[in-house]
Amino acid sequence: MKKIGFITLAILIYSAIVFYFGWSVWTWLEAFFSINLGIFMGIWFLVAYAIIIARLDHRLRTFSIIGSYWLIIMQYGILLFPIASILVWIFPEYLKLIGGIVLLIFVLIMLLGTYNAFSPVVRKLTITIPKKGAAVDKLKVVVASDFHLGLLSNKVHLQRFVKKSNEQNPDLVLLVGDLVDDDPIWFVKKGMSEVMKQLQSTYGNYGVLGNHEYYGKKIPLLVEEMEASNVKMLLDETIMVADTFYLTGREDLTNRNRKELSELAPKQNNLPWFVMDHTPSNLLIPERAKVDFHVSGHTHRGQMWPNHLFTQRIFELDYGYRKKGNMHAIVSSGFGFWGPPIRLGSQSELWSVEIKLEDV
Fold first, then answer.
1. Phi and psi of 190, rounded to 5°?
2. Number of Cβ atoms within 10 Å of the Cβ of 252
3. What pLDDT sits at residue 70?
4. 242 near 135, Cβ under 8 Å?
5. Cα separation, 209 vs 196, whole angstroms
6. DSSP tag of 56
7. Is the bond leading into 341 cis (omega within 30 degrees of zero)?
8. C-alpha dist (Å) from residue 48 to 27, 43, 71, 253, 359
9. pLDDT tens, 203-259?
10. What backbone torsions phi and psi does residue 321 show, to the nearest 5 degrees?
11. Continuous segment of H or E residues that includes residue 351
12. 359: left (phi over 0), alpha (psi -120 to 50) or beta
């Protein structure tokens, strides 16, 4: 009963906010031309609940796209609409101007955010770790996460990744979770496997699951598609690669039955140890386990300003590179995006890491 009550309360609050936003927009539009309030509000609420409507059937994908853009209005409307309402209350004669400024801000958010989302950059890093018994002296590793491949983070965006990754001439490619946006159906239907197959590396391409793969509840299909795309998925397992390093892929934290990292540790400490874990929940555990190189994603660096203020408080390392003890850790903001196809305060990226293996 408590859960039902909470959901009901959340729907009522959300609907009240949607009505407030709609009333504000209708009031501004009325200053230019007459518009029927009932029809306008009907369309407004349809848009506001589009992301929920889209989940009823895959054929309603248009609602999914509409819902994704609606989240931009919700994110920044919370900040902009109250300020605009206060200004209109103080200066009612400037209603048109104030509403126009709010609209302009939304347009600028869309333009800059879209550029950041669809213009990925390469972050370069050089680190040194103990060589131990590795057969080589250096490795080039490409790290990327959070593609959320689907309708908006699509086949064309995946092509951007493959092109930029191949330009790095990597020895290893690590795809650190949330490869698809919940359901892999669009990965399959849009033939994205054809693009992923073009990903090149010396020692192979490896991936792990993220929380959104669990939300989609089609993990076997996702794993099958990735394997067919030349990406080896590691589900709570550790392998040795080219007599040079151990590589562990952890199940995401969403899976409460995932193995402890200690259960996945190599039996011998004779080679460098790399670990992929989608959510950077606790870096102390891999540091104490003597992991050499730890990579994660999940946080998106908040994706849209000022959400990074929350991710910074939740995670010890919510973005970037840090050396913790003898362990080198990276948290990527992701190559794709969740929901709105925009990024503010973050940019789509992949990491190109040169690892020097030296005797100590």
1. -90, 5
2. 21
3. 95
4. yes
5. 16
6. G
7. no
8. 18, 9, 8, 31, 59
9. 999 999 999 999 988 999 999 999 999 999 999 999 999 999 999 999 999 999 999
10. -115, 145
11. strand 349-358
12. beta
Spacing of C-alpha 254 from chain mean position = 15
Q: Of 245, 208, 255, 256, which is closest to residue 328 (Cα–Cα)?
A: 245
Residue found under tokens 């109250």:
82
What is the per-residue DSSP string for 275-289?
EE-SS---THHHHHT
According to DSSP, the β-strands at 231-233 and 237-241 are unpaired
CA atoms of 223 and 201, how far apart (whole Å): 20
Closest CA to 73 of 29, 141, 18: 18
Q: Please check whether residue 343 is in contact with residue 113, taking contact to mean a CB–CB distance below 8 angstroms.
A: yes
Closest to 335 (Cα-Cα) out of 158, 201, 90: 158
Instruction: Output the CA–CA distances (angstroms, integers) from residue 340 to 7, 110, 115, in the order listed.
Output: 23, 10, 13
Which run of H or of E encompasses 5?
helix 2-30
Q: How far is CA 330 from CA 125, 182, 222, 249, 323, in A?
A: 10, 24, 25, 15, 9
Tell me: the pLDDT tens digits for 122-154?
999 999 999 888 889 999 999 999 999 999 999
Indicate the residue type of 360.
Answer: V
Residue labelled with tokens 């190189």: 293
Neighbours of 26 (CB within 10 A): 15
